Amino acid sequence: MNVLDSTQTVIKNALDKLGYPEEVFELMKEPMRLLTVRIPIRMDDGSTKVFTGYRAQHNDAVGPTKGGVRFHPDVTEQEVKALSIWMSLKAGIVDLPYGGGKGGIICDPRKMSFHELERLSRGYVRAISQVVGPTKDIPAPDVFTNSQIMAWMLDEYSRIREFDSPGFITGKPIVLGGSHGRESATAKGVTICIREAAKKKGLNIKDARIAVQGFGNAGSFLAKFMHDAGAKVVGIADAHGALYDEDGLDIDYLLDRRDSFGTVTNLFKDRLSNQELLEVECDILVPAAIENQITEKNAQNIKAGIVVEAANGPTTLKATKILADRGVLLVPDVLASSGGVTVSYFEWVQNNQGYYWTEEEVETKLEQVMVQAFENIYKLSHGRRIDMRLAAYMIGVRKMAEASRFRGWI
Q: Which end of the chain, N or C, is more open, meaning fewer C-beta atoms within 10 Å of its C-beta?
């Protein structure tokens, strides 16, 4: 089952549990718009290469759509559709005035120069400029994109529209209207969810052993936050493999040695595979890499009592049921990774107001939002005796369904 099919399955279950008729699912199961673009780019060697990009807008009943843009060789139309639906759910879970959007370009930025990436970023904005904007659809960073790429996109959009428009995009550098705390926001949100989940299990973070699969933006910040909180980070992983030490890894050393794409394990000979890391002895497991890492084949071998999904879709539906039956507390991706879109919303609000907050203000507001969202989902999960994923989808889809109903769409 691909990510879109599995997302649609849970949305159908959530809507059925809430008592909505079939036409609501028909509206929610696919994005309302999907734009496919072809972007010709002059490469450094003088040749022209044509890249394919996408922008999906799931549902704008609540407000403008919002979501990241990823640069990755494995980007597909199906993935972008699913991710836009997840963004709608995240916005509903943390009660933001957004629908979900998502974009992507099929490329490998690790094999492109700085100037080629700039030309591609600007070309993508030119291709989608008619369907995006501060009151239409607001992009943000995602896999292999960062504040520099957001800055190029902002500049290109401002040139096209002929006015300064910082609210067009989030995840920007601070000097261009970015928000304090945005770069680490996803990891901060995951950290809050880990802390709240540990409380429910009666686990002291300072006594916890944590394994983090993925050492990119979210994974590296998370490992640092957990290390600084006194937890023992026993494992980390990147695209080349995994490192494990039952006595805890030197996270500061690893962060100092990693490259701009989050790669560090290639510097070590004694490595595990990513799959082996998932099954190590630990209390808390954080999949922060890619989809479909915990499946029915390895779910029985997961030794952690808490699984917190920092990545999008790392656990299949069958694996979710196996973990739930085993009593593992699984905090789903649509909740755990919603810190990013929450602080993106804060950035958009600051841009609209022209008034900017301190990092302490941002972190305080994020804490309030994430703790409330966690409690809402945990209570519904226990009250209905359903897993946390279904509970999160029920809360996430309800606001969108009600907004669509009031508009007369269904």
A: N
* CA 353 distance to own-chain centroid: 26
The CA distance from 67 to 82, in Å, is 12
Question: pTM of the predicted model, to two decimals?
Answer: 0.91
Which strand ranges, in their side-by-side order, compose the sheet holding 137-141?
Answer: 33-42, 48-57, 99-106, 65-72, 137-141
- Starting at the edge strand found earlier in the chain, the sheet holding 284-287 runs 241-244, 232-238, 209-213, 284-287, 306-308, 329-331
Q: 40: how many CB neighbours lie within 10 A of its CB?
A: 11
Torsion, Cα of 253, 256, 262, 267 (10° steps): -60
**What is the SS3 assignment for 103?**
strand
Q: Which of 66, 81, 102, 399 is labelled catalytic?
A: 102
Query: Which tokens is 209 given?
Result: 């052993």
Rounded mean pLDDT of 317-336?
Answer: 92
Q: Are 356 and 173 within 8 A, CB to CB?
A: no
- pLDDT computed for residue 326 by the predictor: 92
Task: Establish whether 188 is a catalytic residue.
Answer: no
Of the pLDDT bands very low, low, confident and very high (cuts 50, 70, 90), residue 11 is very high
Query: Which residue, 310, 321, 255, 250, is CA-closest to 286?
Result: 310
The long-range contacts involving 296-302, CB below 8 angstroms and separated by at least 24 positions, are: 296/322, 299/323, 299/326, 300/326, 302/278, 302/328
Mean pLDDT of 121-142: 96
Is 90 exceeded by the pLDDT of residue 207? no
Pairwise CA distance, residues 204 & 72, whole Å = 38
For tokens 């739930």, name the residue.
324
Long-range contacts of 223-232 (CB under 8 A, 24+ apart): 223/251, 223/254, 223/255, 224/251, 224/252, 224/255, 225/184, 225/187, 225/188, 225/191, 226/191, 226/194, 227/251, 227/252, 229/191, 229/205, 230/205, 230/206, 231/205, 231/206, 231/284, 232/208
3-37 burial, b at 16+ Cβ within 10 Å, e below that, comes to bbebbbebbbbbbebeebeeebbebbbbbbbbbeb
- The set of long-range contacts for 117-122, using a CB threshold of 8 Å and a minimum separation of 24, is 117/71, 117/149, 118/152, 119/41, 119/42, 120/39, 120/41, 120/51, 120/71, 121/149, 121/152, 121/153, 121/156, 122/152, 122/153, 122/155, 122/156
